[in-house]
Task: inverse folding
């Protein structure tokens, strides 16, 4: 038998059919909202799939309980679902509202994926200003977790968001930006759906350009100076990350992309859709399963991939497909991310201790990718309250209970290490941090809660993240 709230919701939605506003609804006693890793699915009472803001309003007003929002489903710890509640699946809200090329601005429905937006922008020789390294994520989801990428000097996406349309828990539709409803705007960016449903996003854009890759191998102690002079200090530098490889994590392989007029080595303007990535899957398997896989990655595979010069369109490098990282199976093991943010002055000391934690726990880390961000002054729940280096940890873990407990233990040690150096950790991943660790990493939670109390006094907008920590 369906839960009573699901039956009620179905009846209320059904009553709206005559108006033409009813979204697609799924109701079942066994509905699971899963994420990419297949870990920590959330059992919900109903799922609604709107295609318009009006349908979101109807769903919110009709549902009597708690509500969570999801897009591409890349958050990994229940951030897109609330137990026994309604899940709003935003992926059919993928329309272009308008594109104003002369203003370098665009407005889209929040469920549009970056790759779909790039199809529109590339025709006008424009590019997304700030986004993740991969194009599979939704724009609204990216705003909701306040993503960042490899862009030098850009910081998180908050800095390139002009305005948001948000549906509140009582069905009101609010426009929020730096001038109008600024508290709501700042809380919604990085707010994980806690203050309302983001339905439209307005963004700054950049011009498309040709970019050239260069590689440099830098000793760990020399990296902060290298970054300051060779990356941050170079006006042509567009993207940068530095890879630290196991087991020592003591050399930073800097991967730089700078604007150039050189001839293209790849003529395609965007990464083709639907590519098969069998080779990439085999390489991931080899690195994690073969004896001395760490040595194979460091001495053979990485140099082989990076040995050729490359000049591509900015949009090509920005349209990478996360399918290239997808393993053949996630049944017995899965691939996961963690991320930590540490003030730039603590880079060397923190990195050494981070590596020691990984080795002590025997965590199967494939690489740690270092990025950079200026302090974030746009979002309440800012993960960068100072100028920081970010450390994106890409690792493999088992899906059995013992492996999950082991991951929880070394994750808490990683969080403690970041906090020791005045840092924080990123919230879209597994919820292993203790309450005291969350409170230390995000002392702004009281300010966030004040905004939530104002715009969602019944705390109907929720998910497993906010249930645990807020």
Result:
């Amino acid at each position: 038998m369906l839960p009573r709230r699901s039956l009620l919701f179905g009846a209320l939605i059904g009553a709206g059919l005559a108006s033409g506003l009813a979204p697609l609804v799924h109701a079942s006693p066994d509905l699971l909202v899963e994420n990419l890793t297949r870990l920590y699915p959330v059992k919900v009472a109903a799922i609604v799939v709107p295609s318009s803001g009006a349908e979101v309003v109807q769903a919110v007003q009709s549902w009597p309980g708690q509500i969570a929002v999801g897009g591409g489903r890349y958050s990994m710890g229940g951030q897109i679902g609330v137990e026994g509640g309604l899940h709003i699946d935003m992926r059919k809200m993928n329309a272009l509202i308008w594109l104003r090329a002369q203003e370098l601005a665009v407005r889209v429905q929040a469920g549009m994926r970056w790759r779909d937006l790039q199809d529109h922008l590339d025709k006008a020789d424009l590019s997304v200003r700030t986004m993740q390294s991969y194009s599979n994520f939704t724009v609204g989801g990216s705003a909701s977790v306040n993503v960042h990428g490899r862009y030098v000097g850009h910081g998180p996406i908050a800095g390139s968001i002009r305005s948001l349309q948000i549906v509140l828990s009582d069905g009101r539709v609010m426009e929020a930006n730096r001038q109008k409803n600024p508290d709501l705007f700042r809380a919604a960016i990085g707010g994980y759906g806690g203050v309302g449903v983001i339905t439209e996003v307005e963004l700054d854009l950049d011009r498309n350009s040709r970019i050239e890759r260069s590689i440099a191998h830098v000793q760990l102690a020399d990296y902060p100076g290298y970054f300051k002079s060779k990356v941050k200090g170079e006006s042509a530098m567009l993207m940068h990350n530095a890879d630290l490889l196991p087991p020592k994590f003591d050399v930073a392989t800097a991967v730089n992309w700078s604007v150039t007029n050189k001839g293209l080595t790849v003529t395609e303007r965007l990464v083709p859709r639907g590519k098969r990535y069998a080779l990439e899957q085999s390489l991931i398997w080899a690195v994690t399963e073969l004896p001395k896989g760490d040595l194979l990655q460091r001495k053979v595979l990485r140099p082989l991939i990076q040995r050729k010069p490359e000049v591509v369109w900015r949009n090509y490098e920005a349209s990478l497909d996360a399918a290239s990282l997808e393993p053949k199976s996630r049944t017995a093991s899965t691939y996961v991310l963690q991320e930590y943010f540490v003030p730039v002055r603590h880079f060397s000391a923190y990195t050494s201790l981070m590596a020691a934690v990984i080795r002590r726990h025997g965590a199967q880390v494939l690489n740690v990718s270092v990025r950079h961000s200026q302090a974030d002054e746009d979002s309440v729940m800012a993960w960068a309250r100072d100028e920081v280096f970010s450390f994106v940890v890409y690792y493999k873990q088992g899906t059995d209970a013992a492996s999950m407990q082991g991951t929880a233990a070394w994750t808490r040690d990683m969080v403690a290490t970041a906090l020791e150096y005045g840092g924080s950790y990123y919230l879209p991943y597994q919820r292993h941090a203790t309450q005291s660790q969350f409170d230390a990493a995000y002392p702004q939670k009281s300010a966030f809660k004040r905004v939530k109390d104002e715009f969602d006094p019944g705390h109907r907008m929720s998910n497993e993240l906010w249930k645990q920590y807020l």
